[in-house]
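Try this one yourself first.
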């Protein structure tokens, strides 16, 4: 008899398993459909010996000291500030759009103050900002929207930005200074030895058993357990009772080149041309020194593993019906991006898992107290 069955070995499931096993001394079975732990953050060494991210680049960043400290128990860090370029009009320009982006694109020499005025002259009034298109055109106008956002968003999500919730493009700010960092969070690091090693450390506990290539549907009636942490698609848990929730997937082409470098930054976006959305070069992320370089080309798709909930009003309404079922389910906790149908960053998933664990600790007596009767306190953590 396991005290807990944790479905999914990504961030949400692994954090929950670690806390339940280490802090409550309870027996946890972690299962995952894939042949590895770490979920979409899984990284591996390819044939050239380069560390690559199997499911596209994962860049850790957070403003939460609690979340950073919690993960620091399981990894050392390598400081890294992410920079992205966008291929537009035959140039590779900083994204998010900043002062250098505009000056180089249009051959100008604007100052920060002048750029704010320049944006204001091109911004289109929008009575109510509801969509991703509204966000951009109301701030910087339609021409920049067409060059940097519309094509990329249509490739990434399979629909026009005018059909997507405003949250999608609101994630990418516009700057009037020369700050070319993609994120501005206080803590920006990469796990020194990779994400998979971090997850191995997190799940390395005698109370945790792991079963890979295992489907929840195949074992839910075969293995005895008291409670469940579920991190898979919420509609799948309920056998798609109200229909399938739309998710966006990705296809990846991993390539190794014999030259030392391919591009000047880790990620180059392609909003205007090609079927792929971006190219990632991993040596920028890992700091590895190697005569060859490994890249990943990303191709968004409607088919394949679910990666991103599609933020549209009708999808949110459908999720609310599943959320009502989830709230009524006894002894099951739904955690993570897929289980709560939210477009979370990695640190937000960790924060959600720690907050869920805290609620469990406050409401459910410990099944297996430590021999000395003492439990280590759970770390305080919340959403950043």
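Now uncover the answer:
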């Amino acid at each position: 008899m396991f005290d807990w069955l944790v479905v999914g070995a990504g961030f949400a499931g692994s954090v929950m398993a670690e806390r339940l096993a280490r802090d409550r001394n309870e027996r946890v079975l972690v299962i995952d459909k894939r042949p590895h732990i770490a979920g979409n953050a899984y990284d591996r060494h390819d044939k050239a010996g380069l560390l690559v991210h199997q499911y596209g680049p994962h860049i850790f960043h957070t403003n939460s000291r609690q979340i950073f400290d919690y993960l620091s128990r399981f990894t050392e860090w390598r400081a890294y500030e992410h920079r992205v370029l966008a291929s537009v009009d035959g140039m590779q320009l900083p994204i998010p759009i900043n002062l250098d982006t505009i000056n180089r694109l249009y051959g100008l020499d604007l100052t920060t103050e002048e750029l704010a005025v320049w944006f204001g002259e091109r911004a289109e009034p929008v009575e109510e900002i509801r969509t991703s298109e509204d966000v951009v055109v109301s701030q910087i106008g339609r021409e920049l929207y067409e060059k940097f956002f519309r094509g990329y968003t249509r490739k990434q999500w399979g629909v026009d930005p005018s059909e997507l919730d405003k949250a999608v493009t609101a994630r990418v700010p516009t700057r009037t200074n020369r700050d070319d960092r993609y994120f501005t969070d206080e803590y920006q690091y990469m796990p020194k030895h990779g994400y998979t090693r971090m997850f191995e450390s997190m799940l390395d506990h005698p109370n945790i058993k792991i079963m890979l290539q295992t489907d929840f549907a195949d074992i839910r009636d075969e293995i005895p357990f008291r409670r469940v942490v579920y991190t898979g698609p919420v509609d799948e848990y309920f056998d798609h009772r109200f229909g399938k929730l739309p998710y966006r997937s990705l296809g990846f082409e991993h390539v190794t080149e014999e030259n030392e470098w391919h591009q000047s930054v880790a990620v180059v976006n392609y909003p205007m041309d090609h079927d792929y959305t971006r190219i990632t070069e991993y040596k920028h992320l890992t700091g590895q020194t190697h005569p060859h370089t490994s890249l990943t080309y990303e191709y968004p798709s409607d088919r394949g593993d679910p990666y991103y909930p599609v933020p549209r009003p009708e999808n949110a309404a459908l999720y609310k019906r599943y959320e009502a079922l989830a709230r009524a389910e006894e002894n099951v906790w739904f955690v993570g991006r897929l289980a709560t149908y939210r477009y979370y960053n990695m640190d937000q998933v960790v924060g959600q898992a720690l907050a869920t664990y805290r609620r469990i600790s406050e409401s459910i007596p410990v099944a297996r107290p430590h021999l000395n009767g003492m439990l280590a306190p759970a770390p305080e953590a919340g959403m950043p």
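Discussion: Residues 372-384 have pLDDT under 50 and may be disordered. Residues 4 and 28 are 5 Å apart (CA to CA).
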